[in-house]
Amino acid sequence: MLKIGLTGGIGAGKSEVSRLFAAHGAVIVDSDVIAREVVAPGTDGLAAVAAEFGPRVLREDGALDRPALGAIVFADPARLQALNAIVHPLVRARSAELEAAAAPDAVVVHDVPLLAENGLAPLYDLVVVVDAADDVRVERLVRLRGMAEDEARARMAAQASRADRLAIADVVIDNGGPLEALAARVDEVWAELVKRAAAA
What we know:
Blueprint: E1 2-8, H1 14-24, E2 27-30, H2 31-37, H3 44-53, H4 66-73, H5 77-100, E3 107-111, E4 126-131, H6 134-145, H7 149-157, H8 162-167, E5 171-174, H9 179-199
Parallel strand pairs: 1-3, 1-4, 2-3, 4-5
Helix pairs in contact: 1-9, 3-5, 6-7
């Protein structure tokens, strides 16, 4: 089994690369998806969040009210830490379950947005960074997600810098151009990953 950490700044195209790897047969372990699953209605995670933050973070239907929770935790680093202390261990445990269920010769791609920020590179056999110039990312966030330019730049500034991400990369996938070029580069990288998985 080959364990890949996949990351990239907002607007770089990490989700598209993850989708392309999945199409090749990679086992995708998506931290964002799992983070939502572990606080779904009826889970111990949601119960723990409600116990910590009170009923105001629940909607009428019992689901997590993300905007209400966000308003609390993003205004107070200590409250954000309290939330992370609940959610992160649950995400790690679920990620480990998914990885353990993969075939021995699988390429397991952990899609981790904050891999650089949280110092997680040592957990993986290889770190793949999806990269694009800041101006390209801003343009995408404005065009594809409807963000104002200042909002896009603020979101980018809140993440690790390009230099920080590139410093932990074993493989860089440049996504500054068209989708066809990205798909061709992912094909190349995939062939190399399969070779490494077989050797491992």
